[in-house]
Specification:
The chain has about 350 residues and is an alpha+beta fold. It folds into two domains: about 240 residues, no CATH class; about 70 residues, no CATH class. It has ten helices and 14 strands. The chain has an eight-stranded antiparallel beta sheet. The chain has a six-stranded antiparallel beta sheet with strand order 6-7-14-1-2-13. Strand 4 and strand 5 form a beta hairpin. Helix 8 packs antiparallel against helix 9. The longest helix has 21 residues. It holds the Pfam family DUF6925.
């Protein structure tokens, strides 16, 4: 199989794949449409930009990235999500963790040359692995930002967050492995209360308050931190969360990544489930799993086999998988599921100052 560098390049030019960088509760996503005009396109340098957003992976950091392929349960029984977390050891992942609004100067590293004179501001979220920034050339907004530099967005009465939601500056997430830039409007009242399709950001203080660097349902190795994610095409839903007819090619493509980059015991567990199904073992005889990632792997394997059998399999096998799911995939534990597309179900940004005032 191709090495990680080739995997990243292959997915960069695949419009079905998405990317994200940030932390738990503050993240930027880059997506593109088939045939969308490219303002920058240098796959071997890990650069891509469209009129709606841009991304760049730092080519000199790719060899240091620890990839972790994972799958997560959906609350909807016909679905699951998947991705590849792009991690670094904790000691190598730290950013500035500024706690207040800070002017950083002209964004000389912007992906597009036209954006390199605009001013970059860290909005002060104190994230361990990401500097969450905005970028603007608007003189009035710059004046407001300079007047309130050194203040926390979480101070009650701070007008900056509301001003950003009204002005829609570019959002820029900076990590040790690269950056994502979003040019579209901030999801909120002007976008119907949801994130726009394509590149967008999420700023969700109730998740930030958890202090986590990632979802508890993602099996990140100890002493490592995910800085970004590759989101390959999902075989059962599109990027807007709409159900798809099962895409066996997308499924097979991710399974190859799962075999290579997942926590080593999880592909072996998947094989054990498939072997037990082939031997027509009773589901009650299959060993119980002790951790959430193993339980999720069993349940997701059964969901995948159900979708495969539904479309391609025999009536007998479909009945067998259904029997197993009745026993092993009937658990309803919200803590072990993730939202399919978390930013599209609610306002993209929530005002930190307003939430702080409300307690």
């Amino acid at each position: 199989m191709a090495d990680l560098r080739d995997v990243l390049i292959d997915h960069l030019v695949d419009a079905r794949a998405g990317w994200s960088m940030g932390s738990f509760g503050a993240v930027a996503e880059f997506h593109q449409d088939w045939g969308e005009y490219l303002e920058a396109d240098a796959p071997t340098m890990f650069v891509r930009a469209t009129p709606r957003g841009a991304m760049r992976l730092n080519a000199d950091m790719v060899e240091q990235v620890v990839p972790v392929a994972y799958e997560t349960l959906s609350a909807k029984p016909q679905r699951w999500s998947h991705g590849v977390a792009l991690c670094l050891p904790e000691r190598d992942s730290a950013m500035e963790a500024r706690k207040v609004l800070t002017e950083l100067g002209a964004d000389a590293e912007a992906v597009r040359p036209a954006d390199r004179k605009a001013v970059l501001y860290d909005i002060g979220l104190a994230l361990p692995q990401c500097d969450f920034c905005i970028r603007t050339g608007d003189a009035d907004l710059i004046a407001l930002l300079r007047a309130h530099a050194g203040r926390s967005l979480f101070e009650p009465g701070n007008p900056v967050s509301a001003a950003l939601m009204a002005a829609h500056p570019h959002r820029v997430t900076l990590t040790r492995i690269g950056r994502i830039e979003v040019f579209q409007k901030i999801g909120g009242p002007e976008t119907g209360g949801v994130s726009p399709a394509g590149p967008h950001t999420h700023l969700l203080p109730h998740l930030l308050r958890s202090g986590r660097t990632h979802s508890a349902n993602t099996p990140i190795p100890k002493y490592h931190v995910p800085l970004g994610y590759l989101h390959p095409a999902n075989p059962v839903m599109d990027t807007l969360g709409r159900d798809l007819k099962f895409d066996i090619d997308a499924h097979a493509r991710f399974q190859a990544l799962f075999e290579r980059f997942a926590r080593p015991d999880l592909p072996l567990l998947r094989k054990a489930v498939l072997d037990a199904l082939a031997r027509r073992m009773e589901p009650d005889d299959f060993p119980a799993q002790s951790d959430r990632f193993s339980r999720a792997t069993v349940r997701i394997t059964l969901r995948q086999q159900y979708r495969l059998a539904e479309r391609f399999g025999s009536h007998t096998y479909f009945g067998l998988v259904s029997q197993w799911r009745e026993v092993l995939d009937r658990v309803s534990d919200g803590a072990e599921t993730d939202a399919d597309i978390p930013g599209h179900a609610a306002a993209e940004w929530q005002d930190p100052a307003t939430l702080a005032a409300a307690g």
